[in-house]
């Protein structure tokens, strides 16, 4: 079994930075892709970023490219999302997910059905 726990969400001002984390535990040997998704009220779950190969490859949604950075600490089996120049439209619950598939493009990474495990999410609110 695998458990994903997000943390680090909060309330920030537009233009500020914030970093959220996802702690991974359990049997992780067969997990090859870790990703961040987000969901705002009344909206569909949206892909944010993904990484594979122990962080060797990263992919981003066009809406966050250049502002967000996804990384991992393999020693602690933790994934991070550094968010910079935050906008009000970034407000959402941010979820981490893990997949047994190897993602090779942002389009593939955005396929929700390919992910086997999900965390409970952490709220990020950006005031304008």
Overall mean pLDDT stands at 93
Radius of gyration: 13 Å
Helix content: under 10%
Give a count of the beta strands, DSSP E runs of length 2 or more: 11
Shape: globular
Strand content: over 45%
Low-confidence residue ranges: none
Helix count equals 1
Strand-pairing-aware structural class: mainly beta
- Report how far apart the termini are: 40 Å
Describe this structure in words.
This protein is mostly beta strands. It has one helix at residues 106-109; strands spanning 2-7, 10-13, 18-26, 33-39, 46-52, 57-60, 68-73, 78-83, 92-99, 117-118, 122-127. The chain has one helix and eleven strands, in the order E-E-E-E-E-E-E-E-E-H-E-E. The strands form two sheets. Strands 2, 4, 5, 6, 9, 10 and 11 form a seven-stranded mixed β-sheet that branches. A four-stranded antiparallel β-sheet has the order 1-3-8-7, with no helix packed on it. A hairpin with a 4-residue loop joins strand 5 and strand 6 (57-60). It is globular, with a radius of gyration of 13 Å. The termini are far apart. The model has no long low-confidence stretch (mean pLDDT 93).
Key terms for this structure?
128 residues, mainly beta, 7-stranded mixed sheet, 4-stranded antiparallel sheet, 11 strands, 51% strand, globular
